[in-house]
Amino acid sequence: MDSSSQFDRDTAVNLRAPGVYDTDLSADWTIFGVVNGGYLLALLGRALGEALPHPHPFSVSAHYLAPSLPGPAVIRTETVRAGRTLSTGQASLFQYAEDGTETERIRVLATYGDLDALPDDVRTSAKPPAIPPYEHCFGPADAPTPLPGSAEITRLLDIKLDPATIGWAVGAPSGKGEVRGWFGLADGRDPDPLSLLLTVDALPPTAFDLGLSGWTPTVELTTHIRCRPAPGPLRVSITTRNLAGGFLEEDAEVWDSADRLVAQSRQLARAPRAS
Amino acid sequence: MDSSSQFDRDTAVNLRAPGVYDTDLSADWTIFGVVNGGYLLALLGRALGEALPHPHPFSVSAHYLAPSLPGPAVIRTETVRAGRTLSTGQASLFQYAEDGTETERIRVLATYGDLDALPDDVRTSAKPPAIPPYEHCFGPADAPTPLPGSAEITRLLDIKLDPATIGWAVGAPSGKGEVRGWFGLADGRDPDPLSLLLTVDALPPTAFDLGLSGWTPTVELTTHIRCRPAPGPLRVSITTRNLAGGFLEEDAEVWDSADRLVAQSRQLARAPRAS
Question: Can you give the residue ranges of the Acyl-CoA thioesterase-like C-terminal domain (chains A, B) (predicted)?
Answer without folding.
Answer: 145-269
